[in-house]
Amino acid sequence: MFLKKYLIVTFLLLTLFSNAQIGIGTPKPSSDAALEIKSSTKGFLPPRLTTAERDAITSPSLGLVIYNTTKNCLEWYNGTIWYNGCSAATATSPNYLCSTASNGTLTQGQAVSGVTQTITATGMTPGPFNISATYDGVTFSASGTYTGTGSQNIVLTASGTPLSGGTGTYVLNTTPSCSFDRPITGTTTATTSGVTNCNFASNGTLTQGQPITNATQTLKANVTKTGTYYLKGTAVNGILSELTGTFTALGSQEMIIKFSGTPINSGPTTFSIGGCTFTRNVAPAP
User: Fold this and answer.
1) Which of 28, 178, 36, 162 is nearest to 97 (CA)?
2) Nearest-CA neighbor of 260 among 285, 242, 272?
3) Nearest to residue 168, comparing CAs of 106, 116, 110?
4) Burial zone of 135 (CB within 10 Å; 0-12 exposed, 13-18 middle, 19+ buried)
5) How far is 168 from 125, CA to CA, in rounded Å?
6) Is residue 153 within a helix (H) or strand (E), and if so which, with residue range?
7) Contact status, residue 241 vs residue 263, Cβ threshold 8 Å
8) Measured in whole angstroms, how far is the alpha carbon of residue 132 from the centre of its chain?
9) Is the separation of the CB atoms in 54 and 71 below 8 Å?
10) What is the pLDDT of residues 119-177, one digit of tens each?
11) Using an 8 Å Cβ cutoff, are 158 and 140 in contact?
12) Per residue in 215-244, pLDDT tens?
């Protein structure tokens, strides 16, 4: 009798596990599922482990699923890290190559446009990333989220204005890190023997409480070396002044002061910049 029952049970088990699919709560499991559990009143409960208990698993299998009670989140092992659906781990790479490709030109004193640096992250794991490198007024950066694995090319886009010429060395904010060099075309700084006329011309209007859009002050200087010039004055009465431009010839040349900001008070306002002191009137608010 015992032998008969044993043979029946053995036959049933062999029949069950020889089928292509197994259904729990359904007689017809989906053809593309090895196991289908169907219920309208109960859920699937995976093993519940703390982070420490999870990390104690030696060589977890690809696709292993647990519920992390430390993070209160479902997690699965992707072959490199424990990934979760609540807050994905930051993307990581064991190695970065910084010299994959370079595009565009950096020029001292000129706002960056169309400049990129392509780097390669090898063995990238899934997750969000925010990579940047900054030097002397210019930042190369890229951000996003990776859902795959393996080597990834990342295009860093530059922004800002180079403050000096020479060679800029940009170091990634990643661990591990790498760096890349980009040449910065320098410009020649002009020299003068002094300003000869602080009130050569005044253009535009300054009006109390209204943003400045077109006001300038023209000076004259004796240029001894051609090139670019830039000076920034101290804010006065809510008004900023910048002396900027390029000399292309020697001798007596004009220099343009540009105003910005919003005047606070009406009446005469005195400015000092580039060795010059002059007064501009601020009209009362209309």
Assistant:
1) 178
2) 242
3) 106
4) buried
5) 30
6) strand 150-160
7) no
8) 6
9) no
10) 998 877 777 889 999 998 899 999 987 776 778 899 999 999 887 777 889 999 988 89
11) yes
12) 999 999 999 988 777 778 888 999 999 887
118: tokens are 């392509």
Kindly state the DSSP code that residue 262 receives in the 8-state scheme.
-
**Nearest partner of 191 among 241, 228, 232, judged by Cα:** 228
Q: How many CB atoms lie within 10 A of CB 219?
A: 22
Tokens of 281: 């009137």
163 vs 21, 140, 186, CA distance in Å? 67, 15, 9
Cα 68 to Cα 23: distance, rounded to the nearest angstrom = 27
Q: Which two tokens stand for residue 178?
A: 């790498």
Q: Give the residues across from 147 on adjacent strands.
A: none
190-219 mean pLDDT: 91
> Is there a contact between 228 and 188 (Cβ–Cβ < 8 Å)?
yes
57: tokens are: 């698993």
Neighbours of 17 (CB within 10 A): 8
Q: What per-residue confidence (pLDDT) applies to 278? A: 92
Name the residue with tokens 């920034």.
Answer: 232
Query: What is the β-pairing status of strands 239-247 and 227-232?
Result: antiparallel
C-alpha to C-alpha distance for 239 and 259, rounded to whole angstroms: 7
Q: How far apart are CA 79 and CA 149, in angstroms?
A: 10
Gap between the Cα atoms of 10 and 13, Å rounded: 5
The token duo for 265 is: 């008070």
Secondary structure of residue 252 in the 3-state scheme: strand
How far is Cα 135 from Cα 112, in angstroms, rounded to an integer?
13
Q: Per residue in 173-194, is it b (16+ CB within 10 Å) or e — as a string? A: ebeeebebebebeebeebebee
| Contact (CB, 8 A) for 158 and 138 | yes
Q: What is the pTM of this model?
A: 0.44
Tokens 């990238």: give the residue: 124
